[in-house]
Design goal:
The chain is an alpha+beta fold and 151 residues long. The chain has one domain: Cytidine Deaminase, domain 2 (3-Layer(aba) Sandwich). It has five helices and five strands, in the order αββαβαββαα. The two termini are 22 Å apart. Strands 2-1-3-4-5 form a five-stranded mixed beta sheet, with helices on both faces. It binds tetrahydrodeoxyuridine. The site of tetrahydrodeoxyuridine has 16 residues, from strand 1, helix 2 and strand 3.
Length: 151
């Protein structure tokens, strides 16, 4: 596809700088690579009522799905205390893993954890969400719907 993990990580770190995190002061950025080579960034958006908060990964996915994307190759994620370098790995929460599962093949979709110093750790979705439940478990119609591109 021509988009390196290093570039995807840089875009996740860049998105992280604009996160809306007045409550946790923990900023996360994500960069989602689509099968067609396009990239959607996301950051976490928190809320005074706390539970409506949205993670960086889901912001990126929902932006992409809204634009008609249904096929994804990889996501880079970087997170840490607001205003500081991301010195630790920030793995996706369980809810975000399940959202990835809706649209991605667990055997091929790659999750790239990124640190500010350039460090990268890569996993397959199936490693972070084993024995998962997805659209095809509800029948072939659901599986087709999840992967069909819509404009
Ligand atoms: N968060 C993300 O956006 N992605 C992750 O992978 C982990 C957690 C957000 C949710 C919340 O806004 C803040 O980080 C602290 O949990």
């Amino acid at each position: 596809m021509g988009v390196s993990d290093t570039k995807l990580a840089r875009l996740a770190l860049e998105a992280r700088e604009r996160a809306y995190v007045p409550y946790s002061h923990f900023s996360v950025g994500a960069a989602l690579l689509c099968a067609d080579g396009s990239i959607y960034q996301g950051f976490n958006i928190e809320n005074a009522a706390y539970t409506p908060s949205n993670c960086a990964e889901r912001t990126a996915f929902f932006r992409a799905v809204f634009k008609g994307q249904r096929n994804f190759a990889a996501i880079a994620i970087a997170g840490g205390p607001e205003g500081e370098d991301a010195t630790e790995w920030c793995a996706p929460c369980g809810v975000c893993r399940q959202v990835m599962r809706e649209f991605c093949d667990p055997s091929t979709f790659r999750i790239v954890l990124a640190r500010s110093d350039g460090g990268l750790r890569t996993f397959l979705l199936r490693e972070l969400l084993p024995e998962s439940f997805g659209p095809e478990d509800l029948g072939r119609e659901g599986a087709a719907y999840a992967t069909e591109e819509r404009g």
